[in-house]
Specification:
This protein is an alpha+beta fold. The protein has two domains: about 1-70; about 70-260, Protein Transport Mog1p, Chain A, CATH 3.40.1000. It contains five helices and eleven strands; from the N terminus they run αβββββββαββββααα. It has helices at about 1-65, 165-170, 230-235, 235-245, 255-260; strands at about 70-75, 90-95, 105-115, 120-125, 130, 135-140, 140-145, 180-190, 195-200, 205-215, 220-225. The strands form three sheets. The chain has a seven-stranded antiparallel β-sheet. It has a two-stranded antiparallel sheet with strand order 1-2. Strands 5-6 form a two-stranded antiparallel sheet. A hairpin with a 5-residue loop joins β8 and β9 (about 195-200). The longest helix has about 70 residues, at about 1-65. The chain is globular and about 70 Å long.
Length: about 260
Amino acid sequence: MRGALATPRATRGARRDAATVGRRGRATRARATTRGDATTTTTTTTTTRRRALVALVALANARRANAGPATRPFVVDAVKNERWVAVDATFEVPATWANRPGQRARVDKYVLYTDTYGPNYRYTTTVPKLLGDGEAKIDQLALVVVSREGLESVGDLGTIEKIDPARAFGVEGFEGLAASEVAKASVREDAGKQTYYQWELFDGQHRFLMSACVSGGGLYCWVAQIDGARFDADAETYRAVLDSVNIPLVEESRNDMSSRIYETR
């Protein structure tokens, strides 16, 4: 009987050994599967990060492309202690454009008439020639301002089609302007609710850009002269300069005229 019982014990031992080997095999396969999942997860995470980085770089490049070339502001100082409220005029030009070192704007005034408050002047601020890449980008540039009491907007002068820009604003000293013809006219409103009448004129040789508006009792006209061929070669840049002209819209002073002129505000 003892001999007969030996075989079942051996069989049971063999079964235990087989079960142990089976469990170890399953554990080994589980560990291998876990390592495989970890590797797959790491690879997927790395790929996702790379794609996100590529997308961010593409977005940054697109923003730089949409921003266009770098520009810088150019300021024409306000005429103070006059019949209108003093405000600076600004416009944007490409960052590579500049005046020659040491050059400064020149302010001239012309007596329109004299009344009980004294002479009524028209002021012209002439900006030195703007250069870039060794050549003149804008041959001549000026800002003209005169007193026009009671006007709230340049629209009060009438529709843009009825205005002769070459003669309406007292612009002088621009050769060919008086004989030029309007090539384009438009109306623009900026973020500050200021309205501008804008023109492009051409005399066969020069292109003239003009922008007019009203602010604080003053009528302003910005004008630039560019060589016609140079304008045609880079019209988008020049039109961007014209569209950048900014003269803040302010209310006309409620002080009497003598206070406006003779008291420091």
